[in-house]
Amino acid sequence: MSFDWMKIPYALLTVFIVFNYGLLLGALIQKIGARAGRRHGIPIWQNYIDLIKNYGQRTSITHGVMFYLGPVFRLTGGIGLLLFVPTIYGSYMFSNLSFAGDLILALYFVFFGTLGMALGAGESGHPHAAIGITRGLSQVSVAELPFALAVFAVALQYQTLSVTDIVAAQQGGMLNWTLFTNPLAVAAAMLAFLGSMMRPPFDVVIAPQEIPIGPPTEYHSAYLALMQTNRAIFPVAKMVIYMNLFFGGATSWPEFAVKVFLLYLFSAFVGVCFPRFRVEQSIRWFLIWAVPLGVLAILWV
What we know:
The chain is an all-alpha fold and 301 residues long. The protein has one domain. 69% of the residues lie in helices and 0% in strands. The longest helix is centred in the first third of the chain and has 30 residues, at 7-36. The model has no long low-confidence stretch (mean pLDDT 87).
């Protein structure tokens, strides 16, 4: 099978659209959260200002090669996940570089960036880096477990590992969505989604209000800008996976924008309403509530 080189500029266009939408959406969600706390919040364009400022800075501090490859791996995970799954169903331009077994590759990309950041943090030289790595990988791993079970249930249900074929099976009306044909899988995946987004109540690894250390402080200049770029792309890329697997995909950009916004708003709503878990509490929560739902979803199929 020959590779279609014409898809490369279209895939880059997809990355550009998703990047800008992610920047605006991230600021909008922060503003909604601030309004819930009776604050004004940041301007919608603030993320652009921060990004331009950080890309314009340079550093002379050296921690080692792996430390600076961490943000690169992180960004690779987000862009790779977006490039190898279809964004708009039925569109040649925005089917990206998807192929027959892209669902398995997507699962690898979801975890790739986290592992890269763990390797980078391990070379930071900070005495508490190992504690942060342990906490982060523990919570992310247990949050990915119910998501993996939900994905296996969906693959068994539709008898395919192609994201495009899974979206095609959900066409013909809302009742054909996985949300209605296998609600247990969707419930398990959405609980895992809360943990993977690293928002309250599962943000103790970052703990932005209390801990004056971690990646936002250890990394700086263009390296921090790479992480901010990924922060705009990676959440939207994950929501593209969720939209395709569980909510019928998107056949146009307006439908894409609405579904991604509602998924993002779900995590923001939970974060505003519930207090933060400690690491052991979040791990116990996923094992008690999310993992059994994933197992039941497979048995459902």
